[in-house]
Write a structure and sequence with these properties.
alpha+beta, SH3 type barrels, six-stranded antiparallel beta sheet, 7 helices
Length: 382
């Protein structure tokens, strides 16, 4: 009986051991992932202030009995922190590192794109059916981050991130980028026009052109300029709406020009993610207006709400000047922005570019905007 009992206990232990080790390994596997995810989130909060301006993703998993870390980021500090985290959690473990700092090394030296159409969508995902998050316009240079089946993940000169289809870009290297910046000397100041294949209004167009597009231009005759596009195409454009690019300083800010530019866009329809004269959202409208005056402000309303200085309206709002930005939302969450016309009147994109007022006695009074008004900021000293 004793031998039978001993044998029974022995086989119970033998049968239990695999279950113990499996349970232990699963628990260890889960704990490592949980620990990584927790510390990864801390890194994200420290270095990635706005997901629309940066790329950050990092994950670990065990594949074929080998740990793998994968992901990508545009932030060098976040990149180094993730690598240190990897080393601390897996210092005695073989782990494959697929976590990269963008731009993707696979792009080699072709890490710049120049927009070669008047307006190209920037999308949330690399497909035409994905939501548009922004637009990039002709002549602007974007930084290429990675490539995926005909699409480039890009970052604009104001740091916004999105996907652009290959057809909208001329791909180049540092030398090509610098060459374009040196030679691109004119900006289009009209709302919209056509670049023609010949210096004749009846000739076929090679491209359209909209406000703030940048091109290389050389004189052709008294009426026409020869236009060079980023991808090498050439065409002709009337001289009337071309001006030399000049970097105006903030000291040369003229609120009258801001208001004049804004009013030229009256009636332009609302377009989510739009920031051109083909259609815009509220912050795309303000960004386009200021850009037409050589002033670069951030893309989104919540980002624009962080620039400049706050202005507390006086009782009669006499201290609110043309060109100030009015912000709207709920509980200090900014959801809308408009441009002050002075005191309580403002112009904004709200279905179409239109003028409204916070003055109850005005025929343009908007009760909805009055209820959601948050604060005023002055972007440029006046």
């Amino acid at each position: 009986m004793i031998n039978i009992r001993i044998q029974t206990q022995f086989w119970s232990i033998v049968l239990f051991l695999p279950i113990f080790f499996i349970t232990f390994n699963c628990s260890s596997h889960t704990n490592r992932i949980t620990n990584f995810d927790s510390r990864k989130d801390q890194i994200r909060k420290k270095y990635i202030n706005d997901g629309s301006l940066s790329v950050f993703s990092a994950d670990i998993d065990k594949i074929n009995n080998r740990w793998v870390i994968k992901g990508e980021t545009t932030d060098s500090s976040a990149y180094e922190s993730i690598l240190r985290l990897k080393d601390s959690l897996f210092k005695d473990t073989d782990i494959k590192n697929n976590f990269i700092l963008l731009p993707d090394p696979a792009l080699d030296d072709k890490v710049f794109g120049i927009v070669n159409v008047s307006v190209t969508p920037m999308r949330e995902e690399p497909r035409h059916s994905s939501q548009m998050v922004d637009q990039a316009i002709m002549g602007n240079i974007v930084r290429l981050l990675k490539y995926d089946n005909g699409w480039y993940l890009v970052q604009t000169h104001y740091d916004y991130v999105g996907w652009i289809n290959r057809s909208g870009l001329f791909i180049t290297n540092e030398s090509g980028k610098n060459n374009w910046k040196e030679k691109a000397d004119k900006t289009f100041t009209g709302m919209q026009n056509l670049i023609r294949s010949e210096p004749d209004n009846n000739s076929l167009p090679i491209s359209d052109i909209v406000l703030n597009n940048i091109v290389i231009s050389e004189p052709y005759d008294n009426d026409w300029s020869l236009i060079h596009l980023p991808d090498g195409r050439k065409g002709y454009l009337k001289n009337v709406s071309l001006e030399y690019i000049n970097n105006k300083s903030e000291n040369n800010f003229d609120s009258n020009n801001i208001i004049s530019e804004a009013k030229r866009m009256m009636g332009i329809p609302y377009l989510w993610g739009g920031n051109s004269t083909k259609g815009n959202d509220c912050s795309g409208f303000t960004q386009t207006v200021f850009k037409a005056n050589d002033i670069q402000i951030p893309r989104d309303a919540r980002q624009q709400a962080l620039v400049g200085v706050p202005i507390l309206p006086s009782d009669n709002w006499s201290n609110i000047l043309p060109g100030d930005l009015l912000f709207f939302g709920k509980k200090n969450r900014v959801t809308h922005v408009g441009i002050s016309l002075g005191q309580k009147d403002f112009i904004h994109q709200g279905g179409k570019v239109d003028i409204n007022s916070l003055d109850e006695s005005s025929p343009n009074f908007s009760s909805g905007r009055s209820e959601s008004f948050l604060f005023v900021r002055r972007v440029i000293s006046q």
